[in-house]
């Protein structure tokens, strides 16, 4: 994970990702982008339109906010047929979040793996010398 | 890696004692032999068996089938029954995101000799006619009103549209629709994700395979099912697509608050649950049934498209090709069922997360045609080895009439992708007479035979423990992957 903000770790049936961020906003942003980076790569330009969406999430604690955020991205991606390639976390405080996400048509991408959802199983979010680190298992 | 100290019950049963972890309400029982146990110990599945034993109202034991491997919340291959009269809960994590992921098997009256020269055309035509891959959209389009109908009627909706027959419904678990589905309990987002995906295979481990019977184990059962050596069969593995994922996500999210509200203590939040008698528990069950019915409609549509492709390739009506459904089973589901516990009949909620129902001959839930034989139990293997047809046995009483659901993964997807060369794999498969077509090259490597346990070992355990009896074995010819 020296250069990249995330790395994949082993899980028998699913995929684990370890993500870092210099602060919580950076962690949430990097985790959101990692979910799409591991499952897709841009291959075509069939549709040049970029769609911006505001996402608002609230939860009882940081862990739930993190999982809800990733699942909202996956759910929106599937419902709208978009792959998100730009994320700006506008607000993140008191277990609530507001973000601007930018996506383009799934038809522009080669999708390697369908990620069904982010799970709470063995979820870790902790502060370290670098900033913040999260580990999450994604159901594929 | 797990070093849990297991108690050996016999050659095929191992116990995690209740004392292993404070909070376990019942012991864990794992069905496997020494060989499989070595693989099972490689990941955290045994810990998950112990975690499931925390669920309020769990009856007898947290059970694990021989294809058990590390999942999230429940292990994959986990079975747990809970008693609503004893505070029993229902957990979306005990069903999974792909609600009613399942498999159906149909026979043909074609012999291997009839298809071997057409196999490439047939496989390519199936790949082209059946929408597969991530986010695939089907030609079978439904209106918003029809989508609600699918959630209530399941496979019957497809039959009414002309995509099958009443006979198909008789050969589907729950006749292809669970009663009590509640479309009001489903979010708008789930409708949105589900609307374009009817009649699509999906991706990952979902597949459609043309197979040939290469071994008979029970001549009488094969005769009863009109199956013989060299006969071509078809297996379809798919689920509830984005619709089911959304239902699971919505209710996992809402059940987080139930943990505190109902004082439920579980060591993994992916086991979030609510009492079956609570409003939250009832709402999840109603929504889960919608997703289950969606999946049965989906597999019915996929079978219809398969029949049309065979008609095109062989220039014969599917009825003339003998393409009749043997059975369709769910392997990610929670069901309200009657079971005998300590000599008394009880109504329980049986969670099967990567496990197949296995009813013995004479069970009242069986359709008339299978009353004498027992329920067909369909166990797909991997794309290079075998799949099995079994029938349920009396021994499955001890597992709430449950059995394994597949071979079970051995290697992670990343490990498989690292160690397996795609071109070498495809050549190897081709040398065995197997043609593979997939939307993504990565999927083939991730789903390579080396990534799975040997299904022959897994099936041997369920046969030897009397959970189900081997009828016949198939090997793959043409494989379509998402």
Quick summary of this structure?
With 140 residues, chain A is of the alpha+beta class.
Architecture overview:
The complex is a heterodimer of chains A (140) and B (482). With 140 residues, chain A is α+β, with helices and mostly antiparallel strands. Chain A has one domain: Archease, Possible Chaperone, Chain: A, domain 1, CATH 3.55.10.10. In chain A, 24% of the residues lie in helices and 48% in strands. Chain A has 2 helices and 9 strands. In chain A, the strands form 3 sheets. Chain A has a 4-stranded antiparallel β-sheet. In chain A, a hairpin with a 4-residue loop joins strand 8 and strand 9. The model of chain A has no long low-confidence stretch (mean pLDDT 93). Chain B has one domain: tRNA-splicing ligase RtcB, CATH 3.90.1860.10. Chain B has 15 helices and 19 strands. In chain B, the strands form 4 sheets. In chain B, strands 7, 8, 9, 11, 15, 16, 18 and 19 form an 8-stranded mixed β-sheet that branches. Chain B has a 7-stranded mixed β-sheet with strand order 1-2-3-4-5-13-12, sandwiched between helices. In chain B, a hairpin with a 7-residue loop joins strand 15 and strand 16. In chain B, helix 5 packs across helix 11 and helix 10 packs antiparallel against helix 11. The interface between A and B is large, with 34 and 47 residues.
